[in-house]
Every structure is written in structure tokens, then in C-alpha cells.
Specification:
This protein has 279 residues and is an alpha/beta fold. The chain has 8 helices and 14 strands.
Length: 279
């Protein structure tokens, strides 16, 4: 698949502007982000790119955020090689989980050792939302429980759940790169029983899970939460991330509307993970 690479320079950056830019770009189809010294790179499928949408997006940014951008078409390439050269380094989360790739040689020891070779689905654990959910998952007793990883990216959450004894496990993502990468990564880690499917919430009809993980973005969560709630077993837990603390009232209202009870939230750099229970 070909991608559009959007290179953004942020003037007067005070840190949080990157989060606002990435969150609003996600609303118009950009699915992967890599932070740079003066801004970021953002990626969307070439088939979804519309320069008019990009111009409209820039006009709607808060007036104190100044952004310059360029874009180019990126043909299909060896993304493992690109990650090795430019982006991906091992990451340790909660002192219990290390995520690394096959090209790393100096890897810290941890209870849960996850091997991934990321492609365009950049769910490596570096972003706050992924690390927050991983932190919650490490603390949970998931052994013998059915689990859904919705918007699975690289499949890292599904793999960690398998290491902790969850079964059966289903990983779903609408993106072809994410689907292919998850299939590859579960094979690398020796968990071929994880079911991987390409699609969206329409695949959840008639399914039941004890735990649902959804690390996506605010708008998709609000739109699809009814489907997550419907496929949760009684007493089941829904963990959501991909939004800011200021989005919590909207998330809470939709969760309450769908019969979910708030349990807790964790915050990191204004990003939030919430836990809800279906009673």
C-alpha cells in the first residue's frame, strides 16, 4: 500500500501542540505519527488523501499553533528497515514489559518480552496511550478470559494478553498494514491461536468478550462504543484510550448511555486510559 507522508514543523512549540496536531489529524484519516525535533511526520493511506481536507484542517487549528507542512507520496517499502534506521528503540513499561524488534541486540530483561517488527502500524508502545493500556493490562488478572484487541495496530496488546494467559483472543484492525503486521508479530512471539481479522465494529455482531481493549481515537470510540458494550459479557471490562483528559465528559456520557460503569482512569501527558465495567 502507498502512503502519504506529511512532514510538519511546529513553531513556538511548548510540547502539548504535538498532541493537538496528531489528534486532529487522526480525525481526517491520518493513522500513524512519528515525533521529530521540530514537529512530526504523519501518515495516511494515499487513497484517502485529500489536500483540501488538509488545508481546512490547518485553518481550524487554534490560532496559537503555527504549522508548516509538506507532503509526498511514499511508495510501498521495507518499513522494518525504515524503523531500524530512524525510529524504533526498545521500550520498558512498568519494569515488567519490554518491547523490542528483531534487529535490537541490547535488550533489557523483563517478565514479558514482546518481539515486534513494526510496519506502518506504529503501535510500538512509545506513545502514551499504548503504554497506559499496557500498564493496566499488566496489573489485571486476564488468565482464562476472552479478550478483544480493537484497533490492534502491531498486535502488541493482544500478544501481552496471551502472555498473561488470556484466551481466546481476537485482534481486529481496519487497516491492511496493521492486519498483516499483527499476523506477523503473533507468529514471531509464538501465539498462532490469536484470531486476527481485518475490519471494524461490524465484525463484533454476535460476539462476546470478558475484556475489550480499544486504543483508537475519540471520534471512533464515541461512534463504536455501543458495539463494544454490546459484545461485553456481564461483569466484563472495557479499557479505552486514544483521547485527552478534556474528552472524558463526552466519553463518560456515551459510556453511561450504553450501560457501562466508570471504574478508574490513568493519565499521562494529558492522554488518558479509562476502565469501565458492564454490570
Amino acid at each position: 500500500m502507498d502512503y502519504i507522508e506529511l512532514t510538519l514543523s511546529l513553531n513556538n512549540s511548548r510540547g502539548f501542540e504535538n498532541d493537538i496536531v496528531s489528534a486532529t489529524l487522526a480525525e481526517i484519516g491520518y493513522e500513524s505519527f512519528v515525533y521529530t525535533n521540530d514537529g512530526m511526520k504523519a501518515y495516511c493511506a494515499a487513497s484517502l488523501f485529500d489536500e483540501k481536507d488538509l488545508k481546512n484542517w490547518k485553518e481550524t487549528l487554534p490560532c496559537d499553533i503555527e504549522v508548516d507542512y509538506t507532503f509526498e507520496l511514499i511508495k510501498d517499502k521495507n518499513w522494518n528497515e525504515e524503523w531500524e534506521k530512524h525510529y524504533f528503540s526498545p521500550i520498558v513499561i512498568g519494569n515488567d514489559c519490554v518491547i523490542h524488534s528483531s534487529f535490537h541486540t541490547d535488550v533489557p530483561k523483563a517478565k514479558y518480552d514482546i518481539l515486534i517488527d513494526p510496519k506502518m502500524s506504529f503501535g510500538t508502545g512509545h506513545h502514551e496511550t499504548t503504554s497506559l493500556i499496557i500498564g493496566e493490562l499488566i496489573k489485571m488478572n486476564v488468565a482464562g478470559k476472552s479478550l478483544l484487541d480493537m484497533g490492534c495496530g502491531t498486535g502488541v496488546l493482544a500478544i501481552l494478553a496471551a502472555m498473561k494467559g488470556a484466551q481466546p483472543i481476537t485482534a481486529i484492525d481496519i487497516d491492511e498494514w496493521a492486519y498483516d503486521n499483527t499476523v506477523e508479530n503473533i507468529r514471531l512471539n509464538g501465539y498462532p491461536d490469536i484470531e486476527v481479522a481485518k475490519g471494524g465494529a461490524e465484525l463484533l455482531s454476535g460476539r462476546k468478550f470478558d475484556i475489550v481493549l480499544a486504543n483508537i481515537n475519540r471520534n471512533i470510540l464515541l461512534n463504536d462504543m455501543k458495539h463494544y458494550a454490546a459484545c461485553l459479557s456481564s461483569g466484563g471490562l472495557l479499557l479505552m484510550s486514544g483521547f485527552y483528559k478534556t474528552d472524558m465528559p463526552a466519553i463518560e456520557a456515551e459510556a453511561t448511555e450504553n450501560g457501562l460503569t466508570f471504574i478508574k482512569f490513568e493519565e499521562k501527558n494529558n492522554w488518558v486510559t479509562t476502565v469501565y465495567e458492564k454490570r
